[in-house]
Design a protein that fits this description.
3 domains, elongated, about 400 residues, Immunoglobulin-like
């Protein structure tokens, strides 16, 4: 009779998950280690008992990533956690304020019977997983300040409020999470052209880097000296770690009365969607009419309505109709036949699907004096309409 003896030794293995991942800078990423033991050496692994110490450490970390949980040395690490729940698992969290990649390992030691075992991810034992590779990505945002037109000369000295209104998760199809009104995260103080946070040294050009991914709201708060504030509010999606999000151009106009060179032929108006929120002018009260329906979407509620805007004169004669106008678009008020502007400028705002021939369907009615008998200057605001400039 022949007898076969098998020398079976207990075994230990460890895995870390997820092995790869991408998050925005500032986000917290959870890493979970699974420590498994094979007491009989027959290939049957089960989770180690509760209370076994697992050690996590950075194998490579040139971006200053930190552990934000675990026992030991939170920050640069290493840190430990204890297995729990009967699964042989425990978890720690990491984060980074800078973009780049880090490599994280997990290790475990256990005595099974009289055999002391130690294992570590990516140590040559095929039963163990690789180390985890974690990518943190940061966004960047650019915009410009120009004089008189979107292609005019760059103008330095403006101050902007920049606030993150939504977070962005770059995993999968990508998704935004609204932080909610009052919970926006704003730069403090506001961004002044060429301050230490502005990475573009040219006057009138702004660049912010190392941004948490999300949706940002940009608002000019202080215009350059001698210029009029551009009230445009823009929301910009910062979702890429490689391509800067472009906020566009804010236009500043020099101060001065529209009628300095005679009555104009055209008034260039910016549609802000603000309703009565920004009624700011020096015309006599009886010369201005502003009526706003409560259903008008306001820009400060983060809406960007697509509207139809109809212009009319003092005789209620329709001059022009602009379709599909969004907040930040320009509207030209002009008379028929390239004549001088009529004595009164009128605007009606209709939301999508409304009957533009029904005056009662308009959500906003605005009228103001456009002849030279009342003061009129760039920077004047009448409901949702901001006077940018005049043209002759």
């Amino acid at each position: 009779m022949t007898c076969t003896f098998t020398n079976s030794e207990p075994a230990l293995k460890i895995a870390i998950s997820p092995l790869t991942g991408t998050n925005s800078v500032g986000d917290t990423h959870t890493l979970t280690a699974s420590a498994m033991k094979d007491p009989e050496g027959d290939g049957t692994f089960v989770g180690v008992e509760n209370g076994v110490t697992v050690t996590f450490g950075f194998e490579t970390n040139t971006i200053g990533a930190t552990f934000t949980s675990g026992t030991g040395s939170p920050g640069a690490g290493p840190v430990t956690c204890l297995t729990a729940g009967g699964t042989g698992q425990c978890s720690v969290n990491i984060t980074s304020t800078s973009a780049g990649q880090v490599e994280v390992s997990a290790a475990v030691s256990l005595t099974i019977g009289s055999v002391s075992l130690s294992e570590k991810t990516e140590n040559g034992n095929a039963a163990n997983s690789d180390n985890a590779m974690k990518d943190f990505i940061a966004g960047s945002l650019i915009w410009e300040k120009r004089a008189d037109s979107p292609t005019g000369a760059l103008v330095g000295g403006a101050t902007f409020e920049v606030c993150r209104t939504h977070d962005y998760d770059p995993t999968g199809a990508g998704s935004f999470t609204d932080l909610g009104a009052g919970n926006e995260v704003c730069f403090n103080p506001n961004i002044l052209d060429n301050d230490s946070r502005d990475q573009d040294a040219d006057n009138g050009q702004f660049q912010l880097i190392n941004l948490i991914l999300g949706k940002y709201r940009l608002t000019e708060k202080i215009a350059p000296t001698g210029y009029i504030l551009d009230p445009t509010v823009r929301f910009v999606d910062v979702t890429s770690g490689t391509t800067a999000a472009n906020g566009g151009v804010w236009v500043n106009l020099q101060t001065g009365d529209v009628c300095e060179d005679g009555k104009p032929r055209r008034l260039i108006m910016l549609y802000t969607g603000n309703g009565t929120a920004n009624d700011n002018h020096t015309q006599a009260t009886g010369e201005v009419i502003i009526r706003v329906d409560d259903d008008l979407p306001l820009v400060n509620n983060r809406a960007n309505p697509v509207a139809t805007i109809r212009t009319y004169d003092h005789r209620d004669m329709v001059l022009d109709t602009d379709n599909n106008v969004s907040i930040g678009d320009l509207i030209t008020f002009q008379n028929n036949g390239n004549k001088l502007v009529p004595s009164r400028a009128g605007f009606r705002v209709f939301l999508a699907g409304a009957n533009i021939n029904d005056r009662a369907a308009a959500v906003e009615h605005v009228q103001f004096h456009s002849s030279c008998s009342q003061p009129l200057a760039p920077g004047d605001e009448f409901g949702s309409f901001f006077l940018l400039r005049d043209e002759n």
